[in-house]
Amino acid sequence: xxxxxxxxxxxxxxxxxxxxxxxxxxxxxxxxxxxxxxxxxxxxxxxxxxxxxxxxxxxxxxxxxxxxxxxxxxxxxxxxxxxxxxxxxxxxxxxxxxxxxxxxxxxxxxxxxxxxxxxxxxxxxxxxxxxxxxxxxxxxxxxxxxxxxxxxxxxxxxxxxxxxxxxxxxxxxxxxxxxxxxxxxxx
Length: 187
Hints:
This protein is an alpha+beta fold. Helices cover 19% and strands 27% of the residues. The chain has three helices and seven strands; from the N terminus they run H-H-E-E-E-E-E-E-E-H. Strands 1-2-3-7-6-5-4 form a seven-stranded antiparallel β-sheet, sandwiched between helices. It is globular, with a radius of gyration of 17 Å. The protein starts with a helix and ends in a 6-residue tail after the last helix.
């Protein structure tokens, strides 16, 4: 129960952001449009890759606590996104890292009403975009996103609400964790 109350603001922000897609009735949306051309190539996945399939050994090497693994939000996928998260290892327990995977493009985070401070970064072997959620405190939280084929992979680091001055830079720490997991992520 302690974990759920610590992460409620982040969960609420994700639900608001993920639920803000719309389409006009009778019109094809970018998410559902399929061209005849794609039928001759390899079929695109119909569900995103599940980050909870990352082996425990890799999670431990990245400095996360495998016993805190949480699939989805309250155990459920949200709006077509597969989500998995872990706390950092004891005795720290200062932050929570989530991997959020969906069949989206990088344009998903290019919405100034939800994300800002977008900047290009290199994380592990990947070109990525660092970002902040509009209402988040950059001294405590950070996000990074990149694509792997037709999938958007977002990683977020959210500092525990009881930590006022973390001994790390949230973006540097997040990028370190994602780089450590790089070989386990889809390419």
